[in-house]
Specification:
Radius of gyration: 23 Å
Shape: globular
Bound molecules: flavin-adenine dinucleotide, 1,4-dihydronicotinamide adenine dinucleotide
Number of helices: 14
Largest sheet: 7 strands, mixed
CATH topology of the largest domain: FAD/NAD(P)-binding domain
Helix content: 25-40%
CATH superfamily of the largest domain: FAD/NAD(P)-binding domain
Strand content: 25-35%
Number of domains: 3
Distance between the termini: 70 Å
Structural class: alpha/beta
Amino acid sequence: MADAYDLVVIGAGPGGYECAIKAAQLGQKVGVVEKRDALGGTCLNIGCIPSKALLHASELFEEAGHKFADMGINVGTPKLDLKKMLAFKDEAIDGNTKGIEFLFKKNKIDWLKGAGKIVAPGKVEVAGKDGKQTVEAKNIVIATGSDVAKLPGVEIDEKGVVSSTGALSFSKVPGKLVVIGGGVIGLELGSVWSRLGAEVTVVEFMDAILPGMDGEVCKTFQRTLKKQGFTFKLATKVTGVAKQRSGYKVSVEPAKGGDGETLDADAVLVCIGRVPYTEGLGLEEAGVETDERGRVKVDGHFKTNVDGIYAIGDAIAGPMLAHKAMDEGSALAEMLAGKSGHVNYDTIPGVVYTAPEVASVGKTEEQLKADGVEYNVGKFPFTANGRAKANKVTDGFVKIIADKKTDRVLGVHIIGANAGEMIAEAVIAMEFGGSSEDIARTCFAHPTMSEAVKEAALAVTGSPIHM
Ligand code: FAD
Ligand code: NAI
C-alpha cells in the first residue's frame, strides 16, 4: 500500500484540477490520477483551448483576406500555412497543460500517472506504465469527464470521418466538409474550416441550430453563418456515411421520414453531443449508481450513494462546460474542508466562440413562456453602438429579459463580437439579483460594445438613448 491522501481526484480536467488545487490550498493532501500524458483534460488537450486557438487564427486569416483592405491595410491575398497554424494551436495546448503541471507542483499535489479504478471505498488502484499501485484516500472524487457520442453505423477513424479531436488536426483543408450536428462543436469547428476554405454543410436533426438557445438569437446566428458560406440542412438526419474511392457519400433524409438524398464530402465531422466517460472506473464493483444516461448520480453536495465517493463535471448531470466543472470542483473542495461551497446553476453562462460570438445566461423567452412567467424584454442592436460601428462589427444585438413585476433580470442573450466577454457583466448582475434598472443606472465606459448591454437594459422598461 502506497501513500494515504485526504483526497484522490480521478481525472485532471478543469473539474478535477480545480478541485485538487482548491483542496490543497485548504490544507488537504491531494493526489490526482490522470491517464493522459498531459494534465488539463478534454478542455486543455482536445477541447476549449485548441479549438479557441484555431478559431482565433482562422478568424484573423479570414479578416486578412476580406477585411484588412477596407481599413487601408494591404497585405495581398493571405497564404495559409496549415502546418504552422496547427503548431500554433499545439503551442497553446502545451503552454496551458504545462501551466497546470506547475500549479500541481506549487500546491504539492501528486500526479498519480495512470488509469484509476475505484477498488473499494477509500481505495484507488492506479495502473501506470510501470505497473499498478493502490492509494488510500479519505475521499475520492470522480472527475473523469466525457467522451464523443457515437452515431450508430458511422465509424469515426479520426482521419476522414472525425470527431472534434480529428477536426482539430486535419492535415489539409477539406474541400467539402459535412458536419453532423448543428450544436456548439459543429458551428465552432465548422467556422474554422469554412474560414480556411472548406465548403461546410451542417446537417441538424432538430429544426434549429443550437437547440435550447434563445430562438431569436438562433435565427440571426443562422442567417449570419449562411452569409459566411454555411449550408444548413435542418430537421434532417444522417442515415449512413459510405466511403468512396475519394471522399464520402453521406446519406440524409428528413428527420420525420421521406425521400432521402446524398451529400458528397471530403471529410465528415460527427458532433452530436458527448457522453459521460466512466469506462474502467470500477463504478459497478464499488456500487456507485449512474442514471439512465450513464451520468454518475450525485446529491446537492456532489456525493454519490457511496460514502466518501463524490463526482463533478461532465461525468454528472448539467451543462458540459469547463467553467461549470471548475465551479463544482472548487465548491466540492470547500465542502470537504468543512466550508460552504456553492454553485449557482441559474447563472452559468454559455458561449459559442464563432464570429459573431453567441453568449447567454439564464432563461430564454421560450423557457419563461413554458413556465408561465411574465416578463419584459429590452433589445439593442449593435448597428446603433458607436464602437461596433467604428470597428464595422455591427452584426447582432443584446437582449435582456426581466421579470415583469420585480424587474429582476432572468436572462441575457447576446449575439455580437466579444459577446463572450460581455456576458460576464450580465452574470454578475444576475448573481447579485440585479434588476434591469440596476444595469441601466450603471456607468459603462464609452466607446465600448458593452454599452449595448446598458442600452438593452434601458429598453426593458423605457427607451434606449441611441435608438
Ligand atoms: P474532462 O476535461 O473531460 O477531463 C477528464 C479527465 O479524466 C481526462 O483527462 C481523462 O483522461 C481523465 N480520465 C478519465 N477516466 C480516467 C481514469 N479512469 N483514470 C485516470 N484518468 C481518467 N467548454 C467550455 O466551457 N468552453 C469551451 O470553449 C469548450 N470548448 C470545447 C471544445 C471541444 C472541441 C470539446 C470537445 C469540448 C469543449 N468544451 C468547452 C467542454 C469542456 O471541454 C468540458 O466541459 C470539460 O473539459 C469538462 O471537464 P471535466 O473536468 O469534467 O472533464
Ligand atoms: P451539442 O449538444 O452542442 O450539439 C449536438 C447537436 O447535434 C444538437 O443540435 C443535436 O440536435 C444534434 N444531433 C443529435 N443527434 C443528431 C443526429 N443523429 N443527426 C443530426 N444532428 C443530431 O453537442 P456538441 O456540439 O457535440 O458538443 C458537445 C458538448 O461540448 C456540448 O455539451 C457543449 O457544451 C460542449 N462544448 C462547449 C463549447 C463551448 O462552450 N464553446 C464548445 C464545444 C463543445
